[in-house]
Input
Amino acid sequence: MRITTSISEGGKMTELKVTSTLDTSGKCCPMPMVETNKAMRVLAAGDILEIIATDPGTRNDIPSWCERTGNHLLETREDDKVYRYYVSKN
Amino acid sequence: MKSMAIVVRDDSYDKILTPLAFAYLQAAEGVEINMLFVNWAVRALTETGAGEMKIQGDHADQDAWVREQVARAGLPVEIYDIIKALKSTGNVNLYACSLAAAIFEVDEDNLIPEAEGIIGASWFLNEKAAHADHYQYF
Output
């Protein structure tokens, strides 16, 4: 099921379609990154993965992982210690 | 990073979690991991040894609490189950040091099938550690 959400891009709201959501709430390193790698593997190029996390380590881990793997971090949100990352597969 | 070599010495439950977690993290990303288990830690490569690992020393009385926290973190609680999870990535090789195996009674009969075998440290240091992009010792 595709879920639609909006991100701010260059001052205007852009709609993006989330292909799948990975909820790692409550889990800690290494599991969010292990599960992110697994989830990304089954997606196609251009698909968008929403990652929900509560491990504060993901604030560094996800952006640096995106940089290393060539995946594109579209948006990061934080609300009451819950982090949401929107990653487009390279 | 394409490859990482890890030498594991400590066999207490809490202390072996870190090298296993680091290995899992990098293996999931496609990094080749080669782990050498030395000293008491070689027993982690036997079903009995992995099952008997517990927290030692000052924190011995917190064993159950740590296991609950590990479960909450999303990792398998049993060391052998973590080893199986590592192997499921297809990127982890587990080696038992031959000296440690001789001293701590690990042989081909009690070695878990997930392990690659009992090897000489010289081979590991020269063929795996020396060629790895990153090397860690726990």
